[in-house]
Specification:
By secondary structure, the chain is mainly α. It has helices spanning 2-9, 12-29, 32-49, 55-68, 76-89, 93-110, 116-130, 135-151, 155-171, 175-187, 196-206. The radius of gyration is 17 Å and the shape is globular. It starts with a helix and ends with a helix.
């Protein structure tokens, strides 16, 4: 599905536009599952863009409804992870902790582990947002995210975890270590250089962090 691809690419503008179009089509033809999935994508994109203050509570309400009905057709783990990341950006740390815990619970209950590295990466970001001194616990989470991504050959999620760990290294005045962490992951990519994670990685490498 194109929506899943755009979600993985973190192309929030395109994801929101596509979701708006598919919401309209789903409403026109009475496609309930398509409407719910498109709405979830649209709310995730709005959360990550920060252009709609109602998007985060709406996304949380939608996922609460789907959890209550035992829905397994949509990736609620991804929804909770992205909502947690948006909550961190909005400074709503208690909500972010709740959402990340739900993502972990759903992952354990349903055995759906495609987004597992992101669960650990966002947990690390939350720990640092709660207290910048939580460096060791945050690093443990990021190293776990890296190890899982590498074992599954998930380069995109590996790069995302590496970027988070590199930023932690920079905060510790270890810029050289940060570059050494990102460079080998970046060098394995042969396409997709316009995507957000690769753009950020290139910028960090060009400026030597």
């Amino acid at each position: 599905m194109v929506g899943n691809l755009l979600l993985a690419r973190r192309d929030w503008v395109e994801l929101k536009q596509l979701s708006n179009e598919t919401i309209a089509l789903s409403e026109k033809y009475g496609h309930e599952d398509g409407l719910l999935l498109s709405t979830q994508f649209q709310l995730i994109a709005s959360c990550m863009l920060g252009d709609d203050v109602s998007a985060l509570p709406s996304l949380c309400a939608l996922m609460e409804q789907e959890r209550a009905t035992g829905c397994t057709g949509r990736n609620l783990i991804s929804g909770h992870v992205h909502a947690a990341e948006a909550a961190i950006q909005a400074g709503q740390l208690d909500l972010a902790q709740h959402l990340n815990a739900l993502a972990t619970l759903l992952m354990e209950e349903r055995g759906m582990r495609a987004w597992e590295p992101e669960v650990w990466r966002v947990r690390a970001e939350l720990l640092l947002a709660q207290d910048p001194a939580n460096t060791q616990e945050a690093e443990d989470c990021l190293q776990r995210a890296l190890a899982i991504s590498r074992s599954r050959k998930g380069r995109s999620l590996e790069l995302r975890a590496a970027l988070s760990l590199a930023r932690l290294r920079v905060s510790q005045n270890r810029a050289r270590d940060a570059v050494a962490l990102i460079q080998p992951v970046y060098d394995r990519f042969t396409q997709g250089f316009e995507t957000l994670d690769l753009v950020q990685a290139k910028a960090m490498l060009l400026t030597k962090i």
